[in-house]
Hints:
Beta-Lactamase; 3 domains; Phosphatase 2c, domain 1; alpha+beta
Amino acid sequence: QPYxxxxxxxxxxxxxxxxxxxxLVIAESTGLPIIDxxxxxxxxxxVDRDITARKHYEDALIESEKRTRLIIETxxxxxxxxxxxxxxxxxxxxxxxxxxxTRQEAIGRNMAELIVPERFRKLxxxxxxxxxxTGSSRAIDQLTEQIALRRNGTEFPVELSIAPLKIGNAYEFxxxxxxxxxxxxAERQIREAQVNLAIAQNEMKIAQQxxxxxxxxKPIISPYFEVTGFCLPATQIGGDYFDYFYRDEQHLDxxxxxxxxxxxxxxLLMVAARSAIRTQATWLGSPAQTLDVLNNFLYEDxxxxxxxxxxxxxQYYTTTQTLSYANAGHPPPLLYQKCNFSCKELDADGLIIGxxxxxxxxxxxITLCAGDCLLIYTDxxxxxxxxxxxxxxIDRLKTLFEKYADQKPGFIVDTLIQHLKDFCQSDLFYDDIxxxxxxxx
Length: 441
C-alpha cells in the first residue's frame, strides 16, 4: 500500500477493484492511522464506499455535456446564452462567424449593445423587463424576424427565437439566430420578377388588344355574299392577320397571313404587312401583283429580323362571281362546292414572303356557284394538339367543314372553334388560330 509508511489520514481516495464475478468496482476510500504512544503505526482504520454507479453517471454526464457542446458548436444557427440582465454567458462558433466577435470578446457583454442596432436597443430592454415582470413578451418564446448588427457595422436580417429557462428566481435565455440574408434577397428577386411579369403581361394584353383592333370590326353582308373572320389569340401576341375590304365597288379583297414566331417582333411585322396591303389596295392590282409588291416591300425587314410570312390573297369579282387567288406558302383554303357536295383545296405556286426578292407568284381563278363556301385558316388550327399529342389535322377540319358548310359563315366559324376547344380540352393555345369564311349567297 502506498500509504503503509505514511501516518497521515486520507479521504475520498478512489480505488478500482475487480469483483469475484469479474465486473469492475470503483470505491471511494477513507483511511485513519492508529498510532501508539511512541508514535509507531499500529494499523489503519478505514471505510470503502462503492461509487461505481455514481462514476458511471458522472462519466455519462460529461459525455452528454461534450455532445451538447459539439451540437452547439456545429449547428447552422448562432446560439447565444444570456442571463436575466441580458449579459452574454455563452457564444458558439457560428455566432463568432455571423457577428464577427470571438467567444472571449462576447461573453460578459450586453447582448443588445453588441448585436442590436442602436435604434432598436431601447425596445429590446423594454421587452426583457416586461417579460421578467409579467412572464410574457411579443419577442420571447416566439419566432420573429429582426435586424442584427455585425462587428463591422453592417446590418442584416435574421430569424430569432429566444427560449427562457427559469433557474430558481432567475432566468436564463437561449437565443437561436439564423441569418436569412440569402432568403430575403431571393424573396426580393421573386417580388421584382412578379412585378416585371405583371407589367409584361399587362403590356402583352394591351398589345393583343391593339392587334385585335386591326382586324375587321364586323362581317360584310351583301345580297350576293357574306364574309366574316375570327382570331383566337394565343397566350402570347403573335403574327396572325386576316382582313377583307372592298378594293372598289366590284372587287372584294380577302387576305390571311401568318408571321413566323410569337413575340412583339412578329406582331410589328404583321402591322407593317397590313399597312402595305391596305396601301396597295388603293391601286389596281391582282392577287399575284399584290404579293409581288408586298414581298419586295417587306423583304429587308423580314430578312434582317430572321422572320418570314405565309400569306394567301383572294379577290372576288362580284359581277362575274370569279375568285382570283395567289399563295405565298400558306395552307391552302378549303372550297366547299354546293353543286357536288365536295370539298377541295385551293392552291397556287409561290414562295413564302421574305425568302428572296422578285418572286413569280402564280395566280389562279375559279367561278363560284350559289351556295359555295370558302374556309381560309392559319396552321394554328390544324396543328393544335390534344393532351395525347394528336393534332386536330386537315382531315378532321374537312369533315367538319363539309358538315356545316350550308350554315351561315358566323355559325361555321363559331362551331369550328368550339370543336377545336373540345378536341384540345383547352381554351388556351400556344399559337394564334385564325379562321375566315366566305360564302356566296
